[in-house]
Design a protein that fits this description.
6 helices, about 25% helix, 4-stranded antiparallel β-sheet, N-terminal domain of MutM-like DNA repair proteins, Helicase, Ruva Protein, domain 3, 5-stranded mixed β-sheet, about 20% strand, alpha+beta
């Protein structure tokens, strides 16, 4: 599932091509990817100008010149890409937004875990926690202090921190030297400082490299990311640790594959 770096990369590559353009037509090819059901999305988009594109958590948020907006969640296999009108329309393309100056914005999602959500004039925040790139150490400490869950599980909870997923939690915990099974409330002050720094540096490096393309993810121009070549623990089980040469281990934690170095992440 695309996480914060992938979603931010899509926003970064969409912004110069889509922002300030007028919507001149809308094709909603599958109504069941839209929330609320039965909403007349084409009527609310047609003729409007895209005012801005931003990210909140893993959501790609579009604001219109009317002040209203919508967001797209990519789910597990979603892609949001720019095309010329003559480009062949790929199978499982559920939404095509026709933009001025002959561009198409297309949302494709073969597995349909993603979707389009109309916001109107509401905030996209929902129950999401703060953004990790601006999170202060004191905020992180407070949010973890009452959780008796393993730190890996706590960081995956979008109401604790927004935007993190399996890849970047594993990579951040490795960078901070914290075992994924350690209880969140048992982290010492020094560990929380290291963890906050590790989350920020890991995410910034991943954004710099365009995110991780393991399967379906592409940016808005259809290009894969490059951070998958720099993973230090994620999907490297059985291979030597880049720091100490101990074999990377894999466990299942809360139903999610979890990768760590038993020597570099003792607790």
């Amino acid at each position: 599932m695309p996480e914060l770096p992938e979603v931010q990369t899509i926003v970064n590559t969409l912004q110069p091509q889509v922002a300030r353009r007028r919507i001149v037509g809308v094709e909603l090819r599958r109504a069941d990817v839209l929330t609320p059901p039965g909403f007349d999305l084409p009527n609310h988009l047609d003729g409007r100008k895209v005012q801005s594109i931003s990210r909140r958590g893993k959501r790609i948020v579009f604001r219109l010149d009317s002040g209203q907006g919508f967001f797209i969640h990519l789910g597990m296999s979603g892609q949001l890409t720019i095309h010329l009108p003559a480009d062949p329309v790929a199978k499982h393309t559920h939404l095509i937004i026709h933009l001025s100056k002959s561009l198409h914005l297309r949302f494709r999602d073969p597995r349909r875990f993603g979707g389009i959500h109309w916001l109107g004039d509401q905030s996209p925040d929902g129950s999401m926690g703060p953004e990790p790139l601006t999170l202060r150490t004191a905020q992180l400490a407070k949010r973890l202090s009452h959780s008796r869950r393993p730190i890996k599980s706590a960081l995956l909870d979008q109401s604790v921190i927004a935007g993190l997923g399996n890849i970047y939690v594993d990579e951040s915990l490795f960078s901070a030297g914290i075992h994924p099974m350690k209880l969140a409330s048992d982290l010492l002050p020094g560990q929380i400082i290291r963890l906050n720094r590790a989350i920020k540096s890991t995410l910034r490096r991943a954004i710099q490299l365009g995110g991780s393309s393991l399967r379906d993810y592409r940016d808005a121009n259809g290009q894969p990311g490059g951070f998958q070549h720099h993973h230090r623990v994620y999907h490297r089980d059985g291979r030597p640790c880049v720091s100490c040469k101990q074999k990377i281990e894999k466990i299942i934690l809360a139903g999610r594959s979890t990768h760590f170095c038993p020597r570099c992440q003792p607790g």
